[in-house]
Specification:
Number of strands: 0
Structural class: mainly alpha
CATH superfamily of one domain: Tetracycline Repressor, domain 2
CATH architecture of one domain: Orthogonal Bundle
Protein name: Transcriptional regulator
CATH topology of one domain: Tetracycline Repressor, domain 2
Pfam families: TetR_C_33 (PF13305)
CATH class of one domain: Mainly Alpha
Distance between the termini: 66 Å
InterPro entries: Homeodomain-like_sf (IPR009057), HTH_TetR (IPR001647), MT1864/Rv1816-like_C (IPR025996), Tet_transcr_reg_TetR-rel_C_sf (IPR036271)
Oligomer: single chain
Organism: Actinorhabdospora filicis
Helix content: over 70%
Keywords: DNA-binding, Transcription, Transcription regulation
Length: about 190
């Protein structure tokens, strides 16, 4: 029998918090059981195994990530939307490193079907890029550019790789300005081809 007051949602939320503290790769059923002050076996009425627990944390995190970005870009366009999107992305990664790591989990089709968050995130990114007048192929390349930059910068920041005395936020702002410039002038690179 499940512990009174314990639900799958509470188990997954506690697992996400633990992942933020210990790292997503260090999330274990035993560690979560200790955190919840239950036996490991008590958790198996809520999750099948560690892989299931991690997949559920990923679904939760992807949804929270999409919600944060949607709230940030609502009513914005152009550079203002880009800066808000970028700030939401970075703050999620920095504030929730375990959850952020979980968002990169490859989900099986059944688990992926349980959430619309990945599709929402893609739609938000493509909506952001519409202000720059890119065609579909260029939009795909731009999505990859943004994701690569946002992920790389946030990952380096979370792992303490920026040791220079320059303020990290100032570097971030300059890079977002450069991304805006690049997106605004994307068509120029095509004209040269």
């Amino acid at each position: 029998m499940a512990r009174a007051g314990l639900s799958t949602e509470k188990v997954v939320a506690a697992a996400a918090d633990l992942a933020d503290e210990a790292g997503f790769d260090h999330l274990t059923v035993s560690g979560l059981a200790r955190r919840l002050d239950v036996r490991d076996a008590s958790l198996y009425s809520h999750v099948r195994n560690l892989a299931d627990l991690r997949a559920r944390v990923a679904v939760l995190a992807i949804g929270e990530f999409a919600d944060r970005i949607a709230a940030a870009v609502a009513g914005r366009a152009g550079k203002d939307a880009l800066a808000a999107f970028a700030a939401a992305y970075r703050s999620f990664a920095v504030d929730h490193p375990g959850r952020y790591a979980a968002t990169r989990t490859q989900l099986d089709p059944e688990m992926l079907a349980s959430t619309d968050a990945p599709a929402r995130t893609i739609a938000l990114t493509r909506a952001l890029l519409r202000a720059y007048g890119l065609d579909e192929i260029d939009e795909t390349d731009a999505v990859r550019l943004l994701r690569g930059f946002f992920h790389g910068f946030a990952d380096l920041e979370v792992n303490g790789a920026f040791l220079h005395g320059r303020d990290v936020s100032a570097s971030w702002d300059r890079a977002v300005d450069a991304l805006h410039f690049t997106l605004t002038n994307w068509h120029l690179s095509k004209e040269e081809q």
